[in-house]
Design brief:
Elements lengths: L1 E11 L4 E10 L2 E6 L9 E4 L4 E4 L1 E3 L7 H8 L3 E11 L2 H11 L4 E7 H10 L7 H8 L10 H16 L5 E3 L9 H14 L3 E3 L15 H12 L3 E3 L2 H5 L3 H13 L4 E5 L4 E5 L7 H6 L7 E3 L9 H10 L4 E5 L6 H12 L4 E2 L29 H16 L5 H15 L21 E4 L20 E6 L2 E5 L2 E2 L15
Parallel strand pairs: 1-4, 1-5, 6-7, 7-8, 8-9, 9-10, 10-11, 11-12, 12-16
Antiparallel strand pairs: 1-2, 2-3, 5-17, 13-15, 14-15, 17-18, 18-19, 19-20
Helix pairs in contact: 3-5, 5-6, 6-7, 7-9
């Protein structure tokens, strides 16, 4: 199968090239890049005049484990969607279920720190489903510190998942914020020994909780320096809030000293998680300068009225998905903080995409367009298009070359050591994977809102996953399920 994408403005962040060129795809790989390429006999020709052509976006932080959610991400320019912050357990089941059902996008998972701890500390057997993981997050039984025996036991579980092909270790430290910091060091030492990255939702900042065992962002910087592990700081925008400038300065100092710390951000002032999460307790909300009204239940749309209602919901259904508003996007100051997180040198764009839920309890649909009534966080559908709108179209903060570096090239490079197959992603060199996005630079924008979160982004004209079109002429191909697993091969 051959396709010639002709006449576009080609952007290759690896080689620093941006200019008019054609891209020839043969059997799922980039066969040639350059001006005036001849179309081989029988090749499909995609006209890209006036459009930008680059490597598809690599999302390191997607909790979407469904065809429905991945289709929204496809319309946002994503070609690889990985669940690395939370991870899954058991890993083999997650890969097997995704492979059996098929996926529009490439997929992969990290080993789940939370799942391993829940199994050992609380006797909760994980089943690899994101819905079950959300329910576990609010369970306090796994959020305590471990005995030496328990620590050894769950570290062994993680080691087994790494051997099975995990793309590193996902650490939800923010959901167990009072645990012994020595445990975090032990996990980082395991990761460094295995040659895999960690992906951490950090614990609370010292400004938010003076009683925290250690400042969350300082902890990741210090542990990366102590152990030599490659450590990724997830959604720095949401865990830092109004303290983003101090946090970024801490991370910058650590990186300048040689620590292997990477950072990601998304362009929204509200996050999404389970209502039972530790940081959504009334006490912790007060420490953040927030209140119950900052919490909105995702499935019902209820905005929590007071602390009594919040306590009731957390007790009755701790796994209920919710929205937490941590910055006010109506405020120019808060919008500036979001842009600052994105603009931080080498900050990676990652969505933290959430599952789509329907009122009848479904978490999956093979219909397209999606059935009405679906709820999720708008970042599921709009993260990358919104970022491009903000950082390229509206403010000119990034060139297209820089945008593709942040959305495609840098995230793929985090995976190079653990998954050598990732070296073929995020760039357009000959032999690279034919994961391509072709977008309209004058149109690209998000349309999803908190009241209508499943509206697809606009401006992605074509999307190729492994050389197969998933989006063609702006229309999603519902029968296209070319996604393939990306698995770890630790040293």
């Amino acid at each position: 199968m051959q396709t010639l994408v002709r006449g576009g403005r080609v952007v290759d962040p690896a080689g620093g090239f941006e200019g008019p060129a054609d891209v020839l795809v043969t059997d799922g790989r980039i066969a040639a890049v350059g001006p005036g390429l001849e179309a081989p006999p029988g090749a499909e020709i995609v006209e890209a005049d006036g459009l930008v052509v680059g490597p598809g976006f690599v999302d390191l932080h997607s909790h979407v484990h469904s065809i429905a959610g991945q289709r929204l991400q496809a319309m946002d320019g994503v070609t690889t969607a990985l669940d690395l912050e939370a991870g899954v357990m058991p890993l083999e089941r997650a890969y097997a279920e995704a492979g059996a059902a098929g996926r529009p996008l490439h997929y992969g998972f990290s080993a789940s720190w939370g799942g391993a701890r829940a199994q050992v500390l609380a006797g909760i057997a994980p089943d690899a489903r994101i819905e079950s993981s959300l329910a576990v997050l609010g369970n306090p039984r796994w959020q305590r510190s471990s005995s030496p025996r328990e620590l050894a036991e769950w570290l062994s579980l993680l080691e087994g998942e790494i051997a099975a092909g995990a793309l590193g270790i996902g650490i939800l430290m923010g959901y167990a914020p009072a645990t012994d910091p020595a445990e975090f060091v032990a996990v980082a030492r395991l990761a460094a020994k295995a040659g895999v990255p960690t992906y951490t939702h950090v614990r609370e900042l010292i400004e938010v909780d003076p009683d925290t065992p250690v400042d969350g962002s300082a902890e990741i910087a210090d542990v990366a320096a102590e152990t030599g592990a490659a450590m990724h700081h997830c959604h720095v925008n949401s865990t830092s809030g109004h303290h983003i400038e101090r946090v970024l300065a801490t991370l910058d100092k650590s990186r300048r000293a040689g620590s292997r710390v990477t950072v990601e951000a998304y362009p929204y002032g509200a996050g999404s998680t389970a209502v039972g999460a530790a940081f959504i307790s009334p006490e912790r909300l007060r420490l953040k300068g927030l209140g119950p009204a900052s919490v909105v239940l995702l499935e019902s749309g209820e905005r929590i009225a007071d602390e009594a209602r919040l306590r009731q919901v957390r007790a009755d259904d701790p796994g209920a998905p919710c929205i937490l508003e941590f910055l006010d996007e109506r405020s120019e100051r808060d919008r500036g903080l979001l842009r600052e997180a994105l603009a931080f040198p080498d900050s990676i764009v990652a969505s933290d995409a959430m599952p789509v839920y329907w009122p009848d309890g479904r978490h999956e649909s093979t219909e397209w367009p999606l059935p009405p009534g679906g709820t999720t966080h708008p970042r599921t559908a709009g993260t990358f298009a919104k970022t491009l709108r903000l950082m390229v179209r509206e403010t000119g903060s990034w060139t297209w070359l820089e945008a593709f570096r942040r959305c495609s090239y840098l995230p793929a490079r985090i995976l190079d050591d653990v998954a050598p197959a990732a070296r073929a992603k995020g760039h357009l060199a000959v032999g690279a994977d034919a994961d391509l996005v072709v977008l309209d630079p004058a149109v690209i924008t998000d349309t999803a809102t908190f009241s209508d979160p499943t509206r697809p982004s606009l401006g992605v004209r074509h999307l190729f996953v492994g050389g197969e079109p998933v989006v063609a002429d702006g229309v999603l191909r519902a029968g296209a399920l070319p996604g393939a697993p990306l698995r770890g091969e630790p040293r």
